[in-house]
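Risk register update: the risk that structure generation would not scale has been downgraded. Supporting records follow, first protein first.
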Amino acid sequence: MTDAAVTDMAGTAEHLIKRKRLIAFAVPGVLLAYFVYIFFAFDIAGLYKRAQPENALILAADTWSHKVHVNRSHRDGGIEISYEGERKGRYPEGQRPDWVIEQGDTTVIDLGDGYEVRFLPDNASEFDVPGYGTIEAQFDGTRVVTNLGDAPPDWVNASRNRVSITTEGGRLTVTRSKSEVFNYFPGWELFWFTIDSPYYGHGVFEILFGPQLDPNRGNLAGAAYDFWNNGMWRHGDVFWAIGETILMAFLGTFGAAMVALPLSFLAAKRFAPFAAIRFAMRRIFDFVRGVDALIWTIVLSRAFGPGPLTGALAILVTDTGTFGKIFSEALENVDERQIEGVASTGAKPLQRYRFGVIPQIVPILLSQVLYFLESNTRSATIIGAITGGGIGLLITQAIQTQKDWEEVAYYIILIIIMVIFMDWFSGWLRRKLIKGDAEH
């Protein structure tokens, strides 16, 4: 090897080393610059200042607990006690929990651990807060006045028309129309039966083996009916909505597969000799799958109105483009010998496609369709929130109320169970249809 060749190799090696060093410093520098850009573009500092972790903690607590509302009207002084402030969860007349005590004209609400609220005459309220003292609030006919002064603590939100006191023991809200106490308890109360059900407060063993609780119904049939028609948790409506969500995904996915399969032949070079037809069909596939399903949902809901069928159509339109591309690519790679073998029997063109082409792409077709069925089950939840169908509608309604977060948690758990089931079912069906039963 000549000296010139050695020098050239040394120069090349030095150049490679310098380039690797440059890349080693440039990549972290680019990433750092990108993170700095994100910090200012997304206003991370402002987001940190605006953050209210206590609200997140309240929301998290609401997902696994329930509130009992004690409501005193400022118009007539009447006291109402109900679960989550709903009429369907109201305590019957003359029935009150033991922590709500009548003492003459005063209603005492013992929240435990030293926290106590007293509803006094003349729309006045007192809240004993351990470590702070007694907070007084009263609606005097024009505004809500307190003894908090000009610098209330952080856990008190006070204005002319509303005072909200949030503590670990409970919450008191005084407005122009009412005074309301929220007392928190763990668990999902009234999940099985509402208060007006004869089975409320009775355990499973007592319902199954105890005496008849309703003279007109058997315990098992009556309990099943009251559970299914629970006015607070609406189990019947919820499971119907789950069925609508699965049906949206099923109709949209398999409808798209049925539409895309014949159209994919027009996009495959082997089966569509005219380039103009192939180009037009591929651009149509690109268009329908390039527009997100949520956009199609909005467009179709304006055309056909809200409902689960509109959601199924949105999934069908989007997946038609995706399946058309996948199926046409599969058609490009079919084995020509199998088609020639079918043709040698004297089969007509349609018979060649049926017996020489379709069997080759069936594994790909089924695999992709079943995978998209599983994926669209999740998508149908969001689509249902827009079109007004399925479990998506119920979860949107529960979120909009800003108080039924335990119902939101219930719906999310059901959605997770539904997705897990669809994942298992699609995997099982895929193995059965494509690979066959391994045991045989």
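Supporting record for the second protein:
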Amino acid sequence: MKQIKVRRLLILVLITFKAGIATAGSPDPQVSPAPPVSSNGQLRGAVLLSGKYQRPAPLKVVKSRSFCGLTVPNETLLVDPKGGVRNAVVILRPLDRIVNVRSATVSLDNKRCAFTPHVQIAGIGSELLLKNSDPILHTVHARLGKETLFNVGLPRWRQVSKVLDRLGVIRIDCDVLHTWMSAAIVVVSTPYVAVTAENGSFTIEGIPAGSYDIEIWHEILGIKKARVSVAAGAAIFLQTIYRQTPEVKS
């Protein structure tokens, strides 16, 4: 399998419109005229990739080719023509208080020999519903670091629920020689989160005034962090730029 070695640099541009504060960013920020949306703050922005981008090669299928085909798309680094990075996770954690996270039900399906969705966020305590829409056997092997959380066999007729009671990035694989399949579930203890869209954009609404740590996670580009103060009714713009020089290795 080909891998992309990435040398990266993160640039943050943080602007609060109402409070008029620029933090950890550009010497000449561009301030949008967008008005405040409510008494709570808003974080919006984009995660971008600058420099040469080579889309990852399709992943080779080594089993179940009659159904899956010879290759499947590689979703580990998806970038649009303008540099927007899809499937980056943006997490905002308050520094001055404890917040309550509502548990919910999220799902992970197997469709056309790929986990769907490829990346998602779940609040701590959420229920994960495991499904298989394919007519072939899959497994869901979930690991937190090197620790196996569960490993479930899923014929098409079976559905299984698991409680996500551990924080962190859960990596998912399929163990029945479907070696190309992967997914990630980021389990968090804050409601102020987002996954970037196809163009790299995101919005987090309803953020109370206070100080926050921002963490951006991407499965290939890695983790970057910053800190920001949110004022009541303020809008914050965050632009994260990864600069890379890819080297393709066999």
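The first helix runs from residue 65 to 68. On this basis the risk owner (M.S.) recommends closing the item.
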